[in-house]
């Protein structure tokens, strides 16, 4: 607590305990912390906070006390809560800078690197301000935030971790911004230009955007069937990040980019339909991850494929009962035009094969049923490969951007039976998140594939309505941890 700052964030623990940072602050600041604790305005429970305005002789204009639980140690989930509370409390002040004394809070099974990542993520996430509306948004209040460290080794570890948190924070903010943009701005064409802009900022990223004609030539008829009702043209965005060896197989991420989902001819009810502008959050998260990976210059190869379209009703729209042949050659009876995500993703998954992927992960706001099954805390995870599923779960656990695995047993496949095509695009009344995943699994049979259903996690409704940027932290951490295989002989490119 020896640095001049407009705001010092200091931990206080249950039982009126202080750690080294708290004690030295208390001594430097004339005992203000112990006095406040004695008065009982803060108990030290994890997630509490109290903003104090310091006296004229203090080197900090404000002292924000942060409840950190037991001084002996706290859990990782409670530290995440602490980090969030600290960020929220700081945001409530008008401080221009801050020194955060929370890196030495004892967390069971966690090191300084993890704590710095969590703190960095929390402060960056709370600094995000939506700014993309036409006519200009609000201005970002920029704050310089430092984490106080005790010695050189700790400083070095924390600095490295903060650099990564910053890169992931940038990617998360991009995903949030794209998600929050209204459907009249964030069209498939806009998503393509946003991806182009991103590629322009990194030599390591190249980009290709396929238009309707090119998609037609490739036979992407299920994707085009979703776009059929809309005047806005669809786009298939392919962005490649080259950071690994030439013979290393890429990670391929596939994002659902439905820039507005009205349901099509199977029209959705009116309530909250505005939230279907968020139906491109899978695409946004894939581009956000690309941003983070390129920013860190990770030694991997990454391909991001975004299938972008609107889903609207019109006289040219696809109708329930229409049968369409997908790029894979499999035919689909479209019984419900509102089950459109799987129709665009199946062609994108087939297209992904040409990259000889090490793994393919698709990300989609795919089903309301996933929210019914899992709520809004974890994303739904489905995979045909246990190692891949495990790695994604672990990345989610580390970053706090968690997923929970659901089954895609063959037994469910019967629900997709059609009398007129290889499969229907909807299952029965139950297990909707699973039948959707089972549909996708049919187009990823030859791949190590996973699917993240982010319907419950990609955005908040209500007073805090807005995109979360999830699962950028999970995906980026997964890429950071990943050790890819070499390319196979058969590989065409
Ligand atoms: N984008 C929606 C899924 C969705 C709905 C996400 C609500 C978040 C909140 C998707 O395209 C959709 O409409 N799915 C249908 C599938 C059904 C027709 C089988 C759904 O979940 O109702
Ligand atoms: Zn949708
Ligand atoms: Mn839909």
Describe this structure in words.
The protein is an alpha/beta fold. Helices cover 35% and strands 19% of the residues. It is built from 14 helices and 18 strands. Strand 17 and strand 18 form a beta hairpin. The radius of gyration is 24 Å and the shape is elongated. The mean pLDDT is 96. The structure holds ligand BES, zinc ion and manganese (II) ion (MN). Zinc ion binds next to strand 8.
Helical percent range?
25-40%
Q: Stretches where pLDDT falls below 50 for ≥5 residues?
A: none
Nearest-integer average pLDDT: 96
By secondary-structure content and strand pairing, the structural class works out as alpha/beta
Rg calculated over all Cα atoms: 24 Å
Strand sequence of the main sheet, in spatial order?
6-7-9-8-12-16-13-14
Number of strands: 18
- Which cofactor or ligand species appear? ligand BES, zinc ion, manganese (II) ion
Tally of alpha and pi helices = 14
Biggest sheet details: 8 strands, mixed
Termini separation (Å)?
57 Å
Q: Which percent range describes the beta-strand content? A: 15-25%
What overall geometry do the principal axes of the alpha carbons give? elongated
Task: Give me some keywords for this one.
19% strand, single chain, eight-stranded mixed sheet, binds manganese (II) ion, binds zinc ion, alpha/beta, five-stranded mixed sheet, binds ligand BES, 493 residues
């Amino acid at each position: 607590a020896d640095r001049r700052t407009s705001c010092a964030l200091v931990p206080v623990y249950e039982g009126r305990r202080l750690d080294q940072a708290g004690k030295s602050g208390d001594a430097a600041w004339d005992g203000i912390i112990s006095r406040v604790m004695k008065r009982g305005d803060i108990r030290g429970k994890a997630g509490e906070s109290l903003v104090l305005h310091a006296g004229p002789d203090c080197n900090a204009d404000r002292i924000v006390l942060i409840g950190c639980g037991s001084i002996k140690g706290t859990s990782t989930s409670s530290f995440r809560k602490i980090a969030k509370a600290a960020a929220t409390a700081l945001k409530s002040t008008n401080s221009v800078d801050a020194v955060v004394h929370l890196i030495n809070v004892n967390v069971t099974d966690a090191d300084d690197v993890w704590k710095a990542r969590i703190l960095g993520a929390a402060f960056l996430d709370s600094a995000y301000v939506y700014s993309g509306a036409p006519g200009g948004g609000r201005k970002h209040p920029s704050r310089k935030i430092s984490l106080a460290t005790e010695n050189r080794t700790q400083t070095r570890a924390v600095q490295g971790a903060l650099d990564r948190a910053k890169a992931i924070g940038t990617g998360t903010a991009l995903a949030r911004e794209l998600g929050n943009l209204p459907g009249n701005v964030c069209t498939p064409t806009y998503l393509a230009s946003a991806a182009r802009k991103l590629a322009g900022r990194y030599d390591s990223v190249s980009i290709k955007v396929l238009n309707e004609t090119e998609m037609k030539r490739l036979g992407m008829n299920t994707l085009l069937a979703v776009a059929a009702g809309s005047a806005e043209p669809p786009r298939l965005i392919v962005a490649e990040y080259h950071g690994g060896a030439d013979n290393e197989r890429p990670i391929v991420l596939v994002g659902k980019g439905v820039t507005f989902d009205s349901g099509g001819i199977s029209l959705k009810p009116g309530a909250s339909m505005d939230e279907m502008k968020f139906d491109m959050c899978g695409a946004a998260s894939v581009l956000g991850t690309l941003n983070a990976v390129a920013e860190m210059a990770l030694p991997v190869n990454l391909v991001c494929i975004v299938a972008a379209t609107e889903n609207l009703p019109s006289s040219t729209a696809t109708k329930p009962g229409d049968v369409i042949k997908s790029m894979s050659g499999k035919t689909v009876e479209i019984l419900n035009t509102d089950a459109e995500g799987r129709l665009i993703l199946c062609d994108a998954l087939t297209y992904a094969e040409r990259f000889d992927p090490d793994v393919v992960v698709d990300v989609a706001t795919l089903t309301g049923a996933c929210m019914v099954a899992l709520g809004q805390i974890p994303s739904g995870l489905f995979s045909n490969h246990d190692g891949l599923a495990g790695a994604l779960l672990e990345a989610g656990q580390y970053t706090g951007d968690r997923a929970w695995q659901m089954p895609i047993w063959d037994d469910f496949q019967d629900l997709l039976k059609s009398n007129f095509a290889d499969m229907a695009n909807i299952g029965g009344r139950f297990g909707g998140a699973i039948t959707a995943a089972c549909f996708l699994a049919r187009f990823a049979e030859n791949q190590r594939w996973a699917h993240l259903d982010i319907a419950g996690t990609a955005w908040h409704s209500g007073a805090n309505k807005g995109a979360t940027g999830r699962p950028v932290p999970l995906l980026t951490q997964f890429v950071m941890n990943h050790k890819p295989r070499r390319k196979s002989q058969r590989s065409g490119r």
